[in-house]
Design brief:
307 residues, alpha+beta, Rossmann fold, Tumour Suppressor Smad4, 2 domains, 13-stranded mixed sheet, 33% helix, globular
Length: 307
């Protein structure tokens, strides 16, 4: 029965092409431990989402990502955009090989293969919340989902620049910090209208982070108090700060002490909206969407994650 088979979705480019090199080792371990599985390599952006939809329709319910946060995001979007079964019937796990690995950092999941195999054998899982974004792009209504974090402004611009470097084969933390530095130098704040918790914030906004989880950007804690099973999103809004203020704030982003950054606003909410006069980019777990207006909400305890 396909519902008892683990279906592996492998991003061959993850971890500086490490996933492609390492799959032979992983496959042998799966066979040695009598784990029933099938697999497929992704071939392009968006392919993982398509694979998941196809396999759910054929009866598969257990999916394992061999890759990073971006591939995990594609798989989760495939799960939530399909209409075959409730998402609470689906299980998702990961053999992490990405650059940031922020989703597994939340759970403190080890990356060694023996631990990964053991998790599959035990299939210990919990339910977690998932963030949902409804957005208007080119006059079309769309939706996207995130397991961990989303962001707007400087946050999304850095992710977009990092993704460009990944396409060029530069999949390292150094590439991320180069994007971070360039973002600081070149980025200009956007004029946004944010409606959140009976408050309207309108004006220049440098950046925004929306956390279902705590970590982003390879260990930053822009939403340090986020819990992915409390039915709430943690929102951090950075006002129009100077580059000097940004530089001073950097250590606090990694230590989780963002409450000490002057002028920063934080919220816990189940839903809120963002309006922008011009098309803007939004990052979701390291992937990019774009639009003019966004409605963000939380889907409580809506998927099973193998930890």
């Amino acid at each position: 029965m396909t519902e008892n088979i683990f279906f592996f979705i492998i991003n061959p480019n993850a971890g500086n092409n490490g996933a492609k090199r390492e799959w032979e080792t992983i496959e042998k371990l799966l066979k040695d431990n009598n784990i029933n599985f099938e697999y497929k390599f992704t071939e392009a952006t968006g392919h993982a989402e398509a694979i998941v939809k196809e396999k759910i329709a054929k009866g598969f319910r257990n999916f394992v990502v061999v890759g990073g946060d971006g591939t995990l995001n594609e798989v989760s979007n495939g799960i939530f955009k399909q209409k075959e079964v409730p998402t609470t019937e689906i299980y998702i796990g990961i053999f992490s090989m990405g650059t940031g690995n922020d989703w597994i950092r939340y759970f403190n999941i080890p990356t060694d293969y023996s631990s990964s195999i053991d998790r599959l054998i035990k299939k210990h899982s919990i339910k977690q919340d998932v963030g949902k974004i409804k957005f208007l792009s080119d006059e079309q209504e769309n939706e996207a989902y995130f397991l961990n974090v989303a962001g707007l402004g400087l946050d999304s611009k850095i992710v977009q620049s990092t993704n460009v470097m990944k396409v060029r084969g530069k999949r390292t933390k150094i590439a991320y910090f180069r994007s971070l530095f360039k973002g600081f130098i070149k980025y200009k704040s956007q004029i946004l209208k944010i409606s959140i918790e009976d408050e309207i914030i309108e004006g220049k906004i440098l950046s925004m982070s929306i956390g279902n989880g705590k970590f982003s950007g390879g260990g930053m804690q822009q939403t340090p108090n986020a819990l992915n099973n409390d039915g709430l999103l943690d929102v951090t809004i950075y006002p129009n700060m100077t580059k000097f203020q940004i530089a001073l704030a950097m250590p606090k982003l990694y230590s989780g002490k963002i409450e000490k950054i002057k002028g920063l606003k934080t919220y816990k909410t189940t839903s809120f909206s963002i309006e922008n006069l011009e098309k803007t980019i939004f990052e979701i777990d390291g992937e990019i969407i774009d639009g003019k207006s966004f409605e963000i909400s939380i889907l409580p305890l809506s998927i099973n994650v193998i930890i």
